[in-house]
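Changelog note: in this version the structure field was regenerated for every chain. One regenerated record is shown below for reference.
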Amino acid sequence: MLAIGGLPDRYEFTGYLNDSGLFIAPETGAKAPDVTLNLLDGTRFSLSVTTGKLIVLNFWATWCGPCRAEMADLQAIHTDYEDSIHIIGINAGERRTDVMNWVHDLDLTFDIAIDRDGLVSETYQVRGLPTTVVINPAGQIVTIYYGPISYATLQQHIQSLSSE
């Protein structure tokens, strides 16, 4: 682990199992670990399929107050920038009916998945909720936010992507 920590390009090695079988958490600059999610609408989403959009993985739960607080901003950014951003809300394994009621109550229209077995959260080493991972169209992690994310923050990522 120390040897990896000392590599100048260690982000190339994060998000994968190392020789001793330990998982190294994804970090800014690393290739985003591929995950395939079953969405509530019955479709599947895979990070390995390039969309040409900024991808936002937002980990949340219905019992999480800060998660509820950020949902209006996530919905607004989805509505305003649907051509530039793909938001996937990843619920922390709660019952489908509870998630569906919450999504309906908050009038959310971006993609939602339920991480039933916790594998996606484990893959991304989610430490607390909410956590948001921003991934560029090339599949690299741009940044990871712990705590609520705002409209203005996501808008900055979209604008910086447009200027590249």
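Spot check on this record: The beta strands are 36-38, 44-46, 54-60, 85-91, 111-114, 131-135, 141-146. Confidence is low (pLDDT under 50) at residues 1-8.
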